[in-house]
Amino acid sequence: MKQFANSAFTVMVLALPFNGVRPLVGFGELSQEGFFYASLLYLAAMLPIVATRLSFADLTPILRWHWMYLGLILISLPVHLTMMLANDYGGRAGLSRYLLSLSTYAYFFGLAGVMMLHARVIGIDAFLKRARQAFFWLSVLLICVSSLEVIGWALPAAESAFGLLRKLATSAPAETGRLFGLSLEPSFNAFVLLLCLGFATTAPEKRPLLATALIVFCLMSGARTAYFGLLAMALGWLAVRGARRGIIPAGSYGFILVISAFSAGLVLPAFAPMLLGPDQPLSNITRAYLMNAAFETGLTSPIGQGFGQVGYAVVDKVGYAVEMSSELQRFYLGDRFGELPPLFSWYARTFGEFGPFGYILIALSIATAASRLFRIGQKSEDDEGQRLFALSVSLLMSFLAIGFSIGSVRVPHLWLAVVFASLCVAREYQKTPQATRTLRNHLPGNAAASSA
What we know:
- This protein is mostly helical.
- It has a domain at 65-102 and 224-452.
- Helix content is 69%, strand content 1%.
- The protein has a two-stranded antiparallel ribbon with strand order 1-2.
- β1 (88-89) and β2 (92-93) form a beta hairpin.
- α1 runs antiparallel to α2 (34-53) and α5 (124-152) packs across α6.
- The longest helix has 32 residues, at 346-377.
- The chain is globular and about 60 Å long.
- Mean pLDDT is 88; it is low at 435-452.
């Protein structure tokens, strides 16, 4: 049964690039995610173990990162219920939107808890080894596909081969000059490359060629988020080195990194109107308008619009920029009327949902958890613990960068970052004299479990 779960976990990782598949079920945006369908297989493989061994303590480490976020989500229902009942756009009701968003969040939260249980059952080091192997093969897959795509820009035969391969993943066409890979668009492809890079640069086996290829393809993606991601991961790497050398208190690095990301996350939405103009590319106008509109909805109330409700406030306010963008017109007047537009910024969405007060609370809670990660991670004396610490920071920084471009909690980066950061903390606690007692609050089991 454990072997089946291990194999299903690998399949789930390999499914990450397939994020534009034809929907098989009607479950919102998740219906187009290959990761979603593969995760159902993983959950099925883990079901016998979950039924007999899952405990609240498996979820506790995740709550340390999400307790404020989850609390504000739950409070949104009674506080904003009247508004949710009134919200409607093209037959899409506000309350149903809240319930769908909540179910998506709960699904990923539960999936993260199951991964924590998986690590407890087979041991943290064994789980980490399994994850490294899965992401190694995913890296090989992405490098092969990206190489074929690039060669196809010059050779028609390779272009045809790539086109056939891409049709297996998505019906969306690719464009010459930007790396789409197997993903719906270049940004999503770059997101997965960043994940692979985090594992490649923190693996025991040094694979400089693999890491170099991943960086090159990230740069060739033409996605601005990829550039932000590489910069953020580099800053995380410097912070890890600084924490180990004790230049300033280790926890300060994690706190500063998160607070800086949350602060910078509002700069672009706040000043986005400066990017609005007829001389700007169509995508810039669309993104700038929507993220600024989401940001401005948060300014109207100290407690925001409520979880999943920002889109209604955005479509109620029609600005002049709609006339400049045919993409916006599709949501307001065209064939996508009734479909709430994407907000293109997790920071702007969060600010709009929970207002300045809630946004600050979420930033402080995540910054506190990151500070704790750095304090505990820098104390690791063995090589594997140091690598897990570096991986956790790398994944966290990649998500904080991706948050500038995507406004959804369904991004696996967020949950993988939290899982491995929680495992980093749990692994260090297993080595303390009070491990048996302490692990009740971090990861069930005892020190022997990590070597099982």
